[in-house]
Records
---
Amino acid sequence: MVTRSQKIRVVALISIVSMIFLYVMFLLVGRKIFTSEDTYYIKLEKQSVSGLNIGADVKYYGINIGKVVDIAINRDNTSEIIVTINIKQNTPIKAGSVANLPYQSIATGLKLIEITGGDKDAPNLEPESFINVGTDMFDNITGKAEIISEKIEILLNNLIQVTSNENRGKLFNLISQIEVDAQRLDTLLSHTSDYFNDNKNNISSLIKNSDKMVKEFTITAGSLNKLIIKSNSLIEAGKLEESLKNIQEITEKLNTKEIANLVYSMNKLIGTSQETVEHFDKTFLLGRRNLLKSMELFKEALENINEFAILLKDNPDILIKGKESE
């Protein structure tokens, strides 16, 4: 026989299970019933939605605002895929906003909907509208990869052409020539270094003399500048013009006859000077002959004195007895 306490426990258990069931149903269905959402559409043309599943998150700059509720092929255009999303009611989606499909996790390959962009002054999109599709990052990478692969292919073709037998021989010859030129350059640099080391003092002196010459040139330029300034001052003062007038007056006073007499006198003076030089030359020649003759006589006298000194040294009695005759 079922006791009262057993009946109470059964009723309590059924009540608890029923409450849990109602709570779970409320979480699964009731929130959607009592929560208002706006529906938007995203049209993808020739773009893969692999990794995007129903129930995937819809985010606006990283904030979770809704879910993906349907993914279907457009019956009117099979190259298009229509993604239906529900987002929280009164969420502002601007007219310029775009939807991207980034990876939620590269490891899992799952994607989500990321809505970005839109000017703050732009009007809000009405529910049931289409949101523009942005550029997929991986599509850009794929496009860039194709461009890079084309460039790599061109580079490899050029490399193959460069490394052909004919070009390889030319390349080896060029490398050999470069080595020879490098050795010559090294030798030249060594000789240049040795030259500078050996002529260090001369080069230093040359630099000092050049510096001194520059300083002297600077002084000369300064003096020339002073002379020019002084000449300008004379010109401005009118003294140069006065000097030119005086020279002109002196020239006018000298007539042709006076100039001719002056030239005649100068010619006569030159002729007299020439005769004097000729007489001096003759006198010098005569004196040189007499001088040579006198030097010969003097030499002969020195020889006699030397001979007498030798005789005197050998026989001092010669001063008293005289030289014996042979």
Note: The chain has seven helices and nine strands.
---
Amino acid sequence: MKTIQWGVLGCARIARMQVVPAILRCENARFAALASRDPSKLAEFQSLFTAGPFTAHASYEALIEDPVVEAVYIPLPNSMHHEWAIRAMRCGKHVLCEKPLALNSHQAAEMIQCARDCGVLLMEAFMYRYTDRMRQINRVLDSGVLGKIRSVNSTFRFLLDRQNTIKENPDLGGGAMYDVGCYPLNLIGLVAGAEPISVAVECDKPHGVDINLSAVLRYEDGLIASLHCGFNAFGRMHSEIIGTDGMLLAPDTFLNDAGQLTVHDKNGCQIIAIAESDRYAEEIRDFSAAILEKRSPKLGLGESLSNMRTLDRIMVQVQG
């Protein structure tokens, strides 16, 4: 089987703990190169990932210019997504970019246009969309059992117990909305299938970034959605989708572990079992297959741009 040669920009925690191991589990992908400006981090990766040789580059430029590399994964700080995705795509590389795709819709639109001009694939890395949990949520929505959707409430928060992280640095695109709030926003956008006609935001930002945020989104068809995010309190991850005929409860919405969904409708209560998933590997596998098969991956750029426009409307209130 043909394999896509992957390069990773930076030694981010998510790359070390999730994405590089996922690449190694995929039959159509190979971990070919890593770039870091820190020699000690390169050495750490070389000691951790010994299953197959990879090229260690001392600069990001060297990796994106490496002729062996076909696809680049970008787990850099949010403020660097726009620059390095465009630079990689101009070198002919396909790009899987961590969420959020960019800091605003203007940057996202430039990235999308660059992908089209260069004839390469670009995707925002919402790995939760590759879980059995999301497959079952989509199945329930497609069945129509919930009726007309009137309310969506989604929460993703955790207690940040590490000091001096990029999550609290405004210059690097820190803040709860960019970090975890984009997950509920993505889910709400998927369910609504449209952009809101109004957005109202309340947040707490003691150090220049939002650490606790709630937003209410109202849509033309009458749907009202709420999202909640933060990293200043006990962890909570839960979503509910309520329609005229039923309600879907989705605990641990964005995780890949086994669990269950609960559907309440006129026929009573139904429990739907959720199988454990390998979300990062499924994401890498799909993106690699999309390159090989010359097709689009699971997450479309139109969806990402639409969500970025809504994110703009949230962040203008946060930053204002």
Note: The chain has two domains: 4-126, 132-276.
---
Amino acid sequence: MGGFGVPVAYGDLRRVLMHRPGPELDMVTEETAADFHFRRPVDRERFVADWDRMHAAFDAHGVETLLLTDVLAEDRDALNYIARRPNITYVRDLAAVFARGAVMMRPSLKGRWWDEWVVRRAFERLGVPIIGSIEAPGRLEGGGVTLIGDDVAVASICDRGNEEGTAALREIVLGRDVRSFLEVPLPGGHVHIDGLFMVLDERLCLLDREALSVYPCRLFEAGRSEPRWVLFEEFLSDRGMTRIPITRQERDEAHLNVVVTKRSERAVGFAEARRIGEEMGERGFHLDGFPGLELIQGNGGAHCMTCPVLVT
């Protein structure tokens, strides 16, 4: 299987870039955990065992998983760098792939500065075009970017993304990859919109209503010089989207951190997300769960640890 292009967030996942964590996890200590946004130092064997179960679920769903160290196997500089960067496992934050190619992100967390160059080099080897980059003073991460349908890109202004970053992304994709661009400010303390909102299907999503009702959003549309002000949930309602509300505990434990692998049918996420799995099951989905009690200590799950390359 080959190719690239991500026109929607909820189609059949064909190819995905991932990184199997290794010795770099030992860089996370009591003193550095906050720098790398880990809750605490992890047990490397248990962390990797959780990751392996997640990876096995993607394999079982027929997804072609491209491992970063395999793609860059002949690149000594990249491999040496990865061995010192425990957050490389969270590859989604380093790039966002659209229909035409990839936009390279610019991480905000100091423990992630410059990590995006590794994924850029992998895309060059995979033949994925780079259609743009977030440059200083812009900051934006892939967890802060998503798609609603095939016509709306969403980017959040949050602890990890600023207005310069969202404006840079808008300039790259609006009128080319999407017809509309929704800029969503998040309350303080939230690092990405994927911790509050997850698209599951054309008219189905998971949603933290409390956090996403604080600020109005700006909706930019191709061909219009000025944005419109909209409320996030009203925007979803106008599109006919069913919202599955999540609780604060589910949010804190990353239960909405799921990845659709087969449109309207299958997804991968934490086994602990039982209620969300039941809600999805009532709507025709099977959530294939993997245990993540150690993995969650890095504050991420299946969504954070996958960078979709091809979705059909």
Note: Helices lie at 44-60, 68-71, 76-82, 116-126, 163-173, 232-238, 248-252, 274-281.
---
Amino acid sequence: MSNQVPDTRPLAERMRPQAIDDFIGQAHLLGPGKILRQLLKSNYLPSLLLWGPPGTGKTTLARILAQSTGACFIFFSAVLGGVKEIRQIVDEAKETLQSGSRTILFVDEIHRFNKSQQDAFLPHVESGLLTLIGATTENPSFHVVAPLLSRCRVITLNPLTAEDLHNILNRTLEDQVNGLGFDTSILDQDAADYLVAMADGDARKLLTSLEIAISLAETKNEEPLSISLTEVKESLQRNSLRYDSGGEEHFNLISALHKSLRDSDPDGALYWLGRMLQAGEEPLYIARRLIRFASEDIGNAEPQALTVALNARESYHILGSPEGELALAQAVTYLATAPKSNAIYAGYNKVIKDIKKTGSLPVPMHIRNAPTRLMKTLGYGQNYQYAHDDDSALVDQEHLPEELLGSRYYEPTNRGYESIIKDRLTKWRQILARRYRKQEK
């Protein structure tokens, strides 16, 4: 009888890469010449914030980076720890430094720390006692205090591609040590494609679903072992209702909701909202998509749309389910019945395109600030016209770099409040044109 203790860790944990060459995905960070690859070569590790969706490799990358420097690695969960634990870590780091080693502190879900907890890191990150690696699924600009954010390099991780997930799937099936030790042929191609689609860029979700599917298949005691699409769907339904009882993919549902809103159909929008919530979709994810929709597809045609979407998110955050779901339903019907415009979305895309094409064009001298005598001597702010000195608060001066003079980015539509904006801009331009003609005479 073997005395070997079975490995009871979840499959996703067993398959966690231990070396950078085993890591799959994030080529924009780990490819030749890319930032993390360069950091690994240099043996220098600054404080980092790893920002990306779940299951994209944030924790794994932190461990690999720490291992490459030979530093002491401490894992800390923002959910379970507080300021008291931080002080203990600082004391340990001081002892470690005396022995000649640095300490890398990995803080999972750092966005869950409040301001005072984040401030507790500041002096120790600044002094170099701690090298901080924070992981977050939320935008660091909104959830990490500015002083700490300024001391960290933000690294953005992308959802894993379908190709990445297929590679992870095949490696896991074939791995004889940490994986399942099967031939990849046991999994039908349709079943593999479905697992990848349902994982939605999340490797942990992929491997958890695979582990359940394998377990269910083994209970049937069939030889040879084979897993079909039907069995995979069965395992996913038993695992979670997140994908909804009808088997619709997550991204199909959010697409249906988004397009129903864009097409001004409140009935369709309400239905797809209900389908997603009943399936177990994260309500705050839906709220974030509604906020994006308010700017992308409505914009200034109904300026209150963004406020309604933000309030719906805050209301759900306070009330939770099921009460808070009504706030999302209210927002959905408001957004669906609001006038639509993508003028802001289109205009901003034009701006980004021009910036990429023209680079860092200098600010025109007349609209530069001139707080010092030297700057005034150099011409900063010279010939600037103060709009409030004019009876109509209109001045005839350019605000774009010379290379972009005459460019129009924001083109308001005739829909909703944006029609008022369009009329206002047209009248202002006519007034300025008449003034220019008078000056020419």
Note: The radius of gyration is 28 Å.
